């Protein structure tokens, strides 16, 4: 509660200062992550739930779900052009110390707060049960029916904000470009998580209760966090950097022929989230939901066969984030456009 009050006082600040305020309490991410997993707000949690969450904070447990966002942004950093890297650094909050990957979970850290609650529907898009396809005009709306309030709508929106500032003709538009960058980097990762484009009936796997080895959880959380956490712990010596490096090696070797097709968008568009979402729901049907009915305990078979899918989606998210930022922050393109 104290943390909440402290943050509220900071809310009036803008831009970079607002980012700094959000990084004052690392433990807070656990609460947010759990609420996100449950898709409910703090006030909707039963009091016992709040007490348990605060107890976790006291014990300093944190960092759930951070690895995926860290990996996507770290991979992207490696493929940024000089122009893009320079612009990203000018936009990053001071707390990032020049590292995009260190702040890519920020939208998960804030969506719990009242002033940011409107962003909570921007992390995913639900699709009709068992259709295994996605359509923007059919699927992109929030629980109140507001159109464009979903992960693909958010990616279009924040790309447009950055485009109008860096490639457009009206640099005077009053957008917070630091926030736009961090939202874009985060949602680009989210849209690549297959169950962020899952079925509406099970809330993207959130209501499918499963076992993960010896613990109880839900299928959405398995894909958000547990596959990655288990891989980092058991295959990469508890070092997320080792996992990122392994993915980077795959991008250079096994997936080297795929990279340019991952980067490109139809009609030379700056970004193509509808494509990423369509891929995700196909992966959800083919890999996430398969053999994971309610009550199943998922173990080695599931973990080892799905980990390559997770790693490939992290790679695609990173490569595509870099490609979008390179297009947005390419000053040659702007010079070419304005000199026509
Ligand atoms: Zn998210």
TrEMBL record:
User: Any idea of its EC number?
Assistant: 3.1.30.1
Organism domain of life: Eukaryota
The keyword Disulfide bond is assigned to this record: yes
Task: Read off the InterPro entries from this record.
Answer: PLipase_C/P1_nuclease_dom_sf, S1/P1nuclease
Q: Name one Pfam family in it.
A: S1-P1_nuclease
Catalysed reactions listed for this entry: Endonucleolytic cleavage to 5'-phosphomononucleotide and 5'-phosphooligonucleotide end-products
Q: Which family does it belong to?
A: Belongs to the nuclease type I family.
Designated name of the protein? Aspergillus nuclease S1
Q: Which organism is it from?
A: Hibiscus sabdariffa (roselle)
Lineage in the entry?
Eukaryota, Viridiplantae, Streptophyta, Embryophyta, Tracheophyta
């Amino acid at each position: 509660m104290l943390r909440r009050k402290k943050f509220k006082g900071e809310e009036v600040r803008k831009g970079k200062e607002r980012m700094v305020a959000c990084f004052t309490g690392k433990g807070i991410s656990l609460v947010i992550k759990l609420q996100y997993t449950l898709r409910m707000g703090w006030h909707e949690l039963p009091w016992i739930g709040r007490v348990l969450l605060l107890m976790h904070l006291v014990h300093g447990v944190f960092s759930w779900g951070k690895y995926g966002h860290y990996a996507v942004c770290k991979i992207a950093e490696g493929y940024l052009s000089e122009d893009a890297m320079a612009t990203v650094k000018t936009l990053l909050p001071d707390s990032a110390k020049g590292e995009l990957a260190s702040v890519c979970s920020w939208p998960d850290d804030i969506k719990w707060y009242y002033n940011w609650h409107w962003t909570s529907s921007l992390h995913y898009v639900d699709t009709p049960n068992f259709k295994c396809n996605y359509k923007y005009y059919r699927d992109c709306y929030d629980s109140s029916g507001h159109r464009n309030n979903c992960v693909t709508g958010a990616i279009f929106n924040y790309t447009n904000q950055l485009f109008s500032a860096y490639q457009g003709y009206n640099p005077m538009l009053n957008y917070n470009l630091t926030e736009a960058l961090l939202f874009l980097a985060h949602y680009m990762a989210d849209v690549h998580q297959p169950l962020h484009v899952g079925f509406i009936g099970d809330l993207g796997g959130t209501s499918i209760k499963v076992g993960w080895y010896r613990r109880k959880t839900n299928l959405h959380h398995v894909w958000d966090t547990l596959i990655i956490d288990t891989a980092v712990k058991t295959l990469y010596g508890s070092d997320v950097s080792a996992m990122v490096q392994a993915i980077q090696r795959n991008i250079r070797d096994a997936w080297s022929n795929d990279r340019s097709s991952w980067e490109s968008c139809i009609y030379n568009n700056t970004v193509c989230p509808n494509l990423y979402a369509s891929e995700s729901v196909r992966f959800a049907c083919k890999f996430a939901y398969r053999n994971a009915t309610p009550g199943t305990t998922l173990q080695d078979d599931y973990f080892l066969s799905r980990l390559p899918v997770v790693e490939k989606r992290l790679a695609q998210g990173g490569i595509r984030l870099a490609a979008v930022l390179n297009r947005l922050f390419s000053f040659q393109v702007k010079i070419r456009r304005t000199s026509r």
